[in-house]
C-alpha cells in the first residue's frame, strides 16, 4: 500500500489526476474504473484541463463506472450517468463509457452482463475510488461480502443522509443501487482511493490501519497488490503512522511520485 498525504484536497486531487494522466499517456487504450461523489470532482476538472490545454488524449480509453442508483435513468439530474456527462464525458470524449443501468429490468441479468463486459474489455487497469463515511467503496455498504460481484445493494440510512445534499432530503435518495462488488474492484490492476476532509478520518484509519473486515468494506483493499491512497491532512488525522507515511513519500525518487 502506498499512502500519500497532501496538504489539502486541492493538492490531493492534482496528484490523483497525475496518476490517471500517466496511465492514459502510457497506455492510451487503457480501461479506467471511474467513481462519483464530491471527492473526484476536482480530479475530473484537472483531467479536463489537461485534455483541453495539454492535449491529453482519452479517445481510445474505455471506462466503467462503479455504481448507479436503481430507478434513475441517465437523464435524471441526480443519476451518476448525468454526473459523469457533466464532469467529464461532455468535455472529454472517451471511446466507450459504461455505467450500470439504473433502469435495468432484469437486474441479475444486467449485473452478470456488466461483469462480462469488464472481462471482455481486458479488465480494469486503474480503478478510482472514493470512501463512504461508513467505510464503503462503490456502494458496498458494511456487511458486504468481500468477494462480491456487481449486484443490487440497499443503502444504509447513513449513506442516504450523506447523499441527501444532492437530492434535497434523505427520503428522496433512492434506497437501492447497482454497484460493482468488492471482488470486482479487487480485480482491478491498480486501485486509487481518495479521501479528503475530517469526516473521512475515522473510516480511513479503520480501513487502512484496522483489521480487514466486511464491516469496513474498504479494508479489503489491504489485500490489493497495487493500492494508492491519497489523503489530505484532515482525512489522515486519525492515522497512527502518518509521520512514517510522510517520511516514506518524501524520500521517493521522482518517478515514484505523483505530481
Ligand atoms: C457515494 C458513492 C461512492 C463515493 C462515496 C463518497 O455514495 N457511491 O462511490 O465514493 O459515496 O462520496 P463523497 O465523495 O461525496 O464523499
Characterise this structure:
The chain is an alpha/beta fold and 259 residues long. It contains nine helices and ten strands. α2 (41-54) links the parallel β2 (31-34) and β3 (62-65). The longest helix has 18 residues, at 9-26. The protein binds 2-amino-2-deoxy-6-O-phosphono-alpha-D-glucopyranose. 2-amino-2-deoxy-6-O-phosphono-alpha-D-glucopyranose (GLP) binds next to loops.
What structural keywords apply?
259 residues, alpha/beta, seven-stranded parallel sheet, 34% helix, binds 2-amino-2-deoxy-6-O-phosphono-alpha-D-glucopyranose
Structure summary:
This protein has 259 residues and is α/β, with parallel strands linked by helices.
Enumerate the strands of the largest sheet in spatial order, edge to edge or round the barrel.
1-10-9-6-2-3-5
Q: Low-confidence spans: pLDDT under 50, at least 5 residues?
A: none
Instruction: Work out the helix count.
Output: 9
Q: Residue share in helices?
A: 25-40%
What is the overall pLDDT average? 97
What share of the residues does DSSP label as strand, in percent? 15-25%
**Class by SSE composition:** alpha/beta
* Cα-to-Cα separation, first versus last residue: 18 Å
The run of helices and strands is EHEHEEHEHEEHHEHEHEH
- The number of strands is 10
So what's the overall shape? globular
* Rg from alpha-carbon coordinates: 17 Å
Main β-sheet description: 7 strands, parallel
Which cofactors or ions or other ligands sit in this model? 2-amino-2-deoxy-6-O-phosphono-alpha-D-glucopyranose
Amino acid at each position: 500500500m502506498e499512502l500519500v498525504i497532501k496538504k489539502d484536497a486541492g493538492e490531493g486531487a492534482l496528484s490523483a489526476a497525475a496518476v490517471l494522466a500517466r496511465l492514459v499517456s502510457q497506455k492510451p487504450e487503457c480501461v479506467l474504473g471511474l467513481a462519483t461523489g464530491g471527492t473526484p470532482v476536482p480530479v475530473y476538472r484537472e483531467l479536463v484541463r489537461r485534455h483541453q490545454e495539454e492535449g491529453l488524449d482519452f479517445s481510445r480509453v474505455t471506462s466503467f463506472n462503479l455504481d448507479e442508483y436503481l430507478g434513475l435513468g441517465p437523464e435524471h439530474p441526480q443519476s451518476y450517468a448525468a454526473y459523469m456527462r457533466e464532469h467529464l464525458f461532455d468535455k472529454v470524449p472517451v471511446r466507450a463509457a459504461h455505467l450500470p443501468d439504473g433502469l435495468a429490468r432484469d437486474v441479475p441479468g444486467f449485473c452478470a452482463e456488466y461483469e462480462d463486459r469488464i472481462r471482455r474489455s481486458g479488465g480494469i487497469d486503474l480503478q478510482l475510488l472514493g470512501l463512504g463515511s461508513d467505510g464503503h467503496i462503490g456502494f458496498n455498504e458494511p456487511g458486504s461480502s468481500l468477494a462480491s460481484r456487481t449486484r443490487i445493494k440497499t443503502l444504509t440510512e447513513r449513506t442516504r443522509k450523506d447523499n441527501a445534499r444532492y437530492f434535497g432530503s434523505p427520503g428522496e435518495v433512492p434506497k437501492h443501487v447497482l454497484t460493482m462488488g468488492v471482488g470486482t474492484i479487487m480485480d482491478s490492476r491498480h486501485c486509487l482511493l481518495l479521501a479528503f476532509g475530517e469526516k473521512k478520518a475515522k473510516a480511513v484509519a479503520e480501513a487502512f490501519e484496522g483489521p480487514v473486515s466486511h464491516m469496513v468494506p474498504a479494508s479489503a483493499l489491504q489485500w490489493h497488490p497495487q493500492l494508492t491512497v491519497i489523503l489530505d491532512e484532515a482525512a489522515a488525522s486519525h492515522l497512527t503512522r502518518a509521520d512514517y507515511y510522510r517520511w516514506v513519500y518524501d524520500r521517493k525518487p521522482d518517478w515514484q511520485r505523483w505530481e
